[in-house]
Amino acid sequence: MPITREEKQQQVAEIKKHIESAKIIVLWDYLGLTAGEAQELRTKFYNAEGVNKVYKNRLAKIAFEELGKTEMISQFTGPSSFLFIDGEDQSSLKILEKEISANKNLTFKAGYVDGEYYDAEKIAELAALPSKDVLLSMLLSALQGTIRNLAYAISMVAEKAPADSTPVEPAKEEAKEEPTVETTEETKETTEEVVTPEVEESTEETITNKEESKDSEEKGE
Questions:
Q1: What does the alpha-carbon distance between residue 41 and residue 47 come to, in Å, rounded to a whole number?
Q2: Phi, psi of 34, deg, nearest 5
Q3: 3-state helix, strand, coil in the chain (%, to 5)
């Protein structure tokens, strides 16, 4: 049964609303899916916070043209389905990627990511990337491995540090003490050998001079 003009306008408005709110839009070919399989897949998308819709190509073209997104219009041929992903969760895209990998009749056609046009190849590459949860798990594992290695390295340094540092301190103290003792002994010896004889000779000469002076005074008297 043909839809009325008003119903067509409502569908165009609905498509435009999905386009404006979605972070990721994926156009894909659902040829080969049975009605039951299509319904099961829609349920999986819904549970993963994705919305999958099938629209008439002519109405979809009107909606995309009115929003200035014309790059994908050439792909509006044959049976086409639109997957709209509004939030950060891309689980529904991974679900679609898995279905397309398992069923050769299903294909990516094109899409938009944050307003940027992606052709079928780029959409397939995006869908093949690990999910956010998987990436976080990989990052956590890498960080844990780094922390374990760092802890092991620190423990090895701590174990070696006492053995390396213990003999060093006594050696430094001995090196400082020995020159002091030798210098003191040398100074004493030098004083005894050089300074003492001169002082004794000077003292003897002074006494002799005094005695001679006294004898001269007595003779004069």
A1: 10
A2: -80, 165
A3: 70, 10, 20
CATH number assigned to the domain comprising residue 59 = 3.30.70.1730
Q: Is residue 190 part of a domain?
A: no
pTM of the model: 0.60
Report the SS3 class of residue 116.
strand
Range of the domain at 81: 5-129
pLDDT tens-digit readout, 30-69: 988 999 999 999 999 999 999 999 999 999 999 999 999 9
For 101-134, letters b (16+ CB in 10 Å) and e give eeeeebebbbbbbeeeebebeebbebbeeeeeee
User: What is the number of structural domains in the chain?
Assistant: 1
CA count, 13 A, side-chain hemisphere, 208: 6
What CA–CA distance (Å, rounded) separates 87 from 201?
A: 110
**113 inside domain:** yes
Residue 23 burial (10 A CB sphere; 0-12, 13-18, 19+): middle
Q: Quick check: is 103 in a domain? A: yes
Q: Is residue 69 part of a domain?
A: yes
